[in-house]
Amino acid sequence: PVLFLEHKRSYRGVKGEVPDEDYVIPIGLADVKRPGNDVTVITYGMMVHDALQAAESLSTEGYSIEVLDLRTLAPLDVEGICASVRKTGKVLIAHEDNLTGGLGGEIAAIIADACFLYLDAPIKRLATPDIPMMPFNHQVEMQLLPGRRQLEEALRALAEY
Questions:
Q1: Is residue 59 classed as helix, strand or coil in its secondary structure?
Q2: Least crowded by CB within 10 Å, which of 73, 89, 112, 136?
């Protein structure tokens, strides 16, 4: 069985080209949405769009950010993750889940086990604070979720490490 999740912000906030012909997104293969050389952002879902915007913004400052879209969480594309980390030597794992117990910790462990000698900086994670439940109020929710501004700050700090 396959479970496909859509982010509610994507209904009105994301526009793009849709192919006319049938196409398949392979399960278990990540996709490099933007190649780069300085830092890798590993992310999925709505954070991919925020990461692409942050990478574009930072390119005007001379930073080359690679954006890796996991696309599937189980199975994870460990080879794709490691190839990107080996290329840049610096990695930011970004997701909307809680920091503690989120998927980012598992990805960090995989990178530490498989790519430690290639790292030029500590593995960093950007996630939602550890809270028991997301507030119902939209304004408070948007303050808690990581976004483009937080991504830019974290990426800039990693690039300068």
A1: helix
A2: 136
Q: Are 144 and 126 in contact (CB under 8 A)?
A: no
Is residue 154 within 8 Å of 124, Cβ to Cβ? yes
Asked if 115 and 64 touch (Cβ cutoff 8 Å), the reply is no
- Judge whether 91 and 39 are in contact, CB under 8 Å: yes
Tens of pLDDT, residues 10-58: 777 778 888 899 988 899 999 999 999 999 999 999 999 999 999 999 9
Q: How far apart are CA 5 and CA 112, in angstroms?
A: 28
- Which pair of tokens denotes residue 150? 């937080």
Question: SS3 of 5, please?
Answer: coil
For residues 61 and 9, the answer to whether their CB atoms sit within 8 Å is no
Q: Is 103 helix (H, G, I), strand (E, B) or coil?
A: helix
Put simply, whether the predicted model's pTM sits higher than 0.70 gets the answer yes
